[in-house]
């Protein structure tokens, strides 16, 4: 049911090929039942055609979670009241083999042996349930509130949970008393059962398909029917009910046991601790609006049930072979050499492409199904006719990943754009050629631009890769300003003199750029020292530096001036323009390379 | 600027008792560094540059016994330019070096002749003529560079007077500058204006008195006490 999601460098979720992003909402918190889930209170929720993804703003890599839409049974909406935010309540079905097959990844956990899973259950399940069973009675309104998990008696006053009905924090003694009492009642219950841990731990031990194991103390067996006895009020509940119908206490049901079993098995991306236990009711709290739109989109997605398509067979390929084709195939098999052979081969390729394209354009569904084939053909064409007008190959972005801007969600839109830009700059270029003179690690678009790209260039390249659904310059400016807030791996730098803004990697700071430039200037000096200028070598021009690092001239000039500001370079303004030298002012004479005590003859 | 070769002591003569300067040590290594002739925009780099320049200027002027500089004509000659590498300071930069650089180094640059000129006016001065501002081109301006402070010169003269046993005697200023008696002193061949100022300092301290005024400053005589 719950799973971790993979993240892009920009902390956006990695979507599966046929998955579409439908809606993004920032500032969302998660509740399990009525309890806030710690560390999942400030984040973005992504609704895709297949999943709900939650990514925390503060620590995206550790706190993210994905939920298959297939496991949502129904939704409820709460519009919010005064300080209470609007919430969407999701009633989740307990995962079984029939509901969780939306994703192939789950198959690993389902095929694990019952023995292994029950071992995991008894480890994880026991303390969780024990806590949930402890309730305290509010002294003001006498509501029975659950004691939060992990609650310790030594907590501060602020840590005491307020009453769910009246919001008053009780005295610590009330809680302590409740905990002690529940311990006593459990003990007495245990002693009645006559086994040390019969109630909770053993009730999970048997696999769900064999519930008749000897020690399931909490369950009564009727005629073909099981009841679950409430541990608090001893009411016999229906086995499917998650909480006691009398006193609303969480029940140790067989379905939750199954969920725990499934989740506790080790699987490659481990589920975060907060979601390792079964959650029946998940609430999304929308702290900065957008709940209505989200609910609409969610309902649409739930109606469309796109995840079912994934298991559907692909559209049939038009591979009925006609008689003429057969003949041609026969002919093709004959060894044909020379020019005729080349022509024949060319014709075959053309024919094949014609089939692929003709079939693909017949209708859109078929096009989708044959997208991979189309890509191959397109790539082959591109290889055949190298397009010299394109200065570089751009990474492509699926445009459907950005919802269009609308008044209330424009911040979320900019967040999305900012993350997309980061992805765009840092994802590898699908390119055969590189167009810059430098050869070092040109695997990303940003690197191909010398690690620095101006906003106008970024704007052009980014929009070109989007193709349609272009963004406006102001959107780009707003999005780039968010890099730091979203802790993306790119940063903007504003040049002092021109005020121009460039984007560069977070790993690249002024110092590193300075070191690179200085290294180049020193190399030039050493290579051309000789007798020139009394051994001082020569200065470099901004053009040389731009060419060396693959920068634009303006960018190179700005970096050089930055080096000057930092004191590592100095300038010579002459008839040939500005030449840049290492800064030898204020250094010891012995360090000065060219000085050998020559007498300067002055007329 | 007067021809330095004329004033430099012949090489066969024993070296003067003051600090020794040879041709090689006049110029800092940076004198061949091309950016040396571009005023650096970075303030800390510029501070280093200006201090190198003021050292070069004072050493050069002292070596060649140059007291006066004409602006702007002298600012295109060495040391403000280096023909060997074909670089020279722009006039504006040369003025900055002369006025700001030397001021930083504690050397007084005193205007003694020509018209008022400021740093950065580019040889053009604004003055009020009949209520309207008029820009006039300034042809020439003369400054004295006090590469030795006035008190130092005064002490130098006084020491020489005592060493030569001339205390109580009357000495003509012409003799101090051109006469054989003071041939090996540093003030031999010095600027009359500078020497006059030094003697005025001594007069204030009661060490000497101008006893005879001639037709020109050079013909005055001074009695030392």
Automatic annotation (TrEMBL), chain A:
Localization per record: Cytoplasm; Endosome
Alphabetical GO biological process terms: protein transport to vacuole involved in ubiquitin-dependent protein catabolic process via the multivesicular body sorting pathway
Domain of life: Eukaryota
Pfam family of the protein (one): EAP30
InterPro entries: GLUE_dom (IPR021648), PH-like_dom_sf (IPR011993), Snf8/Vps36 (IPR040608), Vps36 (IPR037855), Vps36-NZF-N (IPR031558), WH-like_DNA-bd_sf (IPR036388), WH_DNA-bd_sf (IPR036390), Znf_RanBP2_sf (IPR036443)
Domain GLUE N-terminal: residue ranges: 5-314
Keyword Cytoplasm carried by entry: yes
Keyword Protein transport: yes
Region (Disordered): 93-123, 187-221
GO terms for MF: phosphatidylinositol-3-phosphate binding; ubiquitin binding
Annotated Low complexity bias: 93-122
Keywords recorded for this protein, A-Z: Cytoplasm, Endosome, Protein transport, Transport
Principal location listed in the UniProt entry: cytoplasm
Extent of Polar residues compositional bias: 187-204
GO cellular component, one term: late endosome membrane
PANTHER family, per database record: VACUOLAR PROTEIN-SORTING-ASSOCIATED PROTEIN 36
Role noted for this protein: Component of the ESCRT-II complex (endosomal sorting complex required for transport II), which is required for multivesicular body (MVB) formation and sorting of endosomal cargo proteins into MVBs.
Family: Belongs to the VPS36 family.
Oligomer status and interactors: Component of the endosomal sorting complex required for transport II (ESCRT-II).
Protein name: Vacuolar protein-sorting-associated protein 36
From TrEMBL, chain B:
GO cellular component, one term: ESCRT II complex
Top-level taxonomic group: Eukaryota
Entry keywords, A to Z: Protein transport, Transport
Pfam families for the chain: ESCRT-II
Gene3D superfamilies in UniProt: Winged helix' DNA-binding domain. Chain C. Domain 1, Winged helix-like DNA-binding domain superfamily/Winged helix DNA-binding domain
GO BP terms: protein transport to vacuole involved in ubiquitin-dependent protein catabolic process via the multivesicular body sorting pathway
An annotated Gene Ontology molecular function: protein homodimerization activity
Region (Disordered): 1-26
Family per similarity comment: Belongs to the VPS25 family.
Name used for this protein in its record: ESCRT-II complex, vps25 subunit
Species this chain originates from: Ascobolus immersus RN42
């Amino acid at each position: 049911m719950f799973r971790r999601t993979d993240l892009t460098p920009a902390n956006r979720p990695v979507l599966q090929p046929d998955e579409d992003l439908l809606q993004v909402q920032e500032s969302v918190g998660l509740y399990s039942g009525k309890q806030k889930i710690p560390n999942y209170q400030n984040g973005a929720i992504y609704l895709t055609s297949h999943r709900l993804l939650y990514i925390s703003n503060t620590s995206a890599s550790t706190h993210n979670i994905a939920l298959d839409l297939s496991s949502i049974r129904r939704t409820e909406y709460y519009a919010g009241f005064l300080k209470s935010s609007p919430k969407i309540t999701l009633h989740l079905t307990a995962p079984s083999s029939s509901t969780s097959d939306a994703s192939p990844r789950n198959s690993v956990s389902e095929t694990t042996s019952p023995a292994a899973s029950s071992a995991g259950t008894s480890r994880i399940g026991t303390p969780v349930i024990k806590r949930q069973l402890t309730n305290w009675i509010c002294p003001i309104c006498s509501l029975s509130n659950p004691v939060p998990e992990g609650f310790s008696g030594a907590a501060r006053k602020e840590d005491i949970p307020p009453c769910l009905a009246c919001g008053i924090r009780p005295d610590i003694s009330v809680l302590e008393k409740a905990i002690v009492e529940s311990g006593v009642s459990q003990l007495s219950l245990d002693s009645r059962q006559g086994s040390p841990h019969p109630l909770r731990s053993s009730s999970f031990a048997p696999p769900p398909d064999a519930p008749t194991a000897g020690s399931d103390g909490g369950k009564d067996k009727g005629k073909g029917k099981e009841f679950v006895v409430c541990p608090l009020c001893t009411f016999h509940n229906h086995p499917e009910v998650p909480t006691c119908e009398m006193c609303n206490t969480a029940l140790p049901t067989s379905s939750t046991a199954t969920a725990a079993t499934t989740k506790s098995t080790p699987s490659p991306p481990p589920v975060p601790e907060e979601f390792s236990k079964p959650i029946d009711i998940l609430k999304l709290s929308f702290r900065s609006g957008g709940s209505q739109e989200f609910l609409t989109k969610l309902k649409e997605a739930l109606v469309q049930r796109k995840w079912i398509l994934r298991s559907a067979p692909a559209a049939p390929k038009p591979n009925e072979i006609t008689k003429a084709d057969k003949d041609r195939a026969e002919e093709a098999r004959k060894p044909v050499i020379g020019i005729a052979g080349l022509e024949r081969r060319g014709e075959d390729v053309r024919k094949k492409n014609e089939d692929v394209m003709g079939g693909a354009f017949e209708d859109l569904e078929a096009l989708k199904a044959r997208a991979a084939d189309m890509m191959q053909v397109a790539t082959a064409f591109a290889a055949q006719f190298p397009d010299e007008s394109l200065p570089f190959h751009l990474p492509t972005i699926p445009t459907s990943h950005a919802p269009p801007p609308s008044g209330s969600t424009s911040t979320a839109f900019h967040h999305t754009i900012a993350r997309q830009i980061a992805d765009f700059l840092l994802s590898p270029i699908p390119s055969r050629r590189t167009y810059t003179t430098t050869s070092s690690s040109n695997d990303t678009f940003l690197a191909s631009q010398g690690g620095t790209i101006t906003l106008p260039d970024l704007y052009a390249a980014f929009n070109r890769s989007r193709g349609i659904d272009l963004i406006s310059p102001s959107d780009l400016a707003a999005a780039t300003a968010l890099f730091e807030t979203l802790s993306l791996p790119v940063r903007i730098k504003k040049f002092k003199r021109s005020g121009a803004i460039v984007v560069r990697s977070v790993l690249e700071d002024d110092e590193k750029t300075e070191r690179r430039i200085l290294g180049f200037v020193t190399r030039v000096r050493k290579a051309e020292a000789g007798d020139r200028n009394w051994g001082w070598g020569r200065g470099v021009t901004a053009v040389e530096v731009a060419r060396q690092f693959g920068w634009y001239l303006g960018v190179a000039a700005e970096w050089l001036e930055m080096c000057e500001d930092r004191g590592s370079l100095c300038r010579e303004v002459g008839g040939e323009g500005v030449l840049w030298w290492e800064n030898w002012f204020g250094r010891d004479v012995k360090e000065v390379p060219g000085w050998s005590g020559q007498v300067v003859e002055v007329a | 600027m007067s021809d330095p070769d004329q004033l430099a002591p012949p090489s066969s003569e024993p070296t003067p008792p003051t600090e020794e300067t040879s041709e090689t040590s006049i110029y800092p290594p940076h004198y061949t560094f091309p950016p040396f002739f571009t005023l650096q925009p970075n303030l800390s780099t510029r501070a280093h540059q200006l201090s190198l320049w003021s050292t070069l200027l004072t050493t050069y002027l002292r070596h060649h016994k140059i007291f006066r500089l004409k602006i702007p004509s002298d600012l295109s000659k060495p040391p403000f330019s280096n023909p060997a590498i074909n670089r020279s300071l722009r006039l504006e930069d040369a003025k900055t070096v002369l006025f700001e650089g030397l001021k930083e180094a504690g050397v007084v640059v005193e205007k003694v002749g020509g018209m008022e000129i400021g740093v950065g006016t580019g040889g053009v001065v604004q003055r009020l003529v009949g209520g309207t501002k008029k820009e006039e081109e300034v042809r020439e301006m003369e400054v004295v560079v006090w590469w030795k402070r006035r008190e130092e010169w005064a002490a130098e003269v006084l020491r020489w007077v005592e060493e030569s046993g001339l205390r109580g005697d009357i000495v003509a200023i012409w003799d101090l500058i051109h006469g054989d008696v003071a041939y090996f002193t540093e003030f031999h061949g010095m600027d009359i204006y500078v020497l006059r100022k030094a003697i005025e300092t001594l007069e204030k301290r009661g060490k000497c008195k101008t006893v005879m005024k001639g037709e020109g400053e050079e013909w005055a005589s001074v009695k030392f006490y």
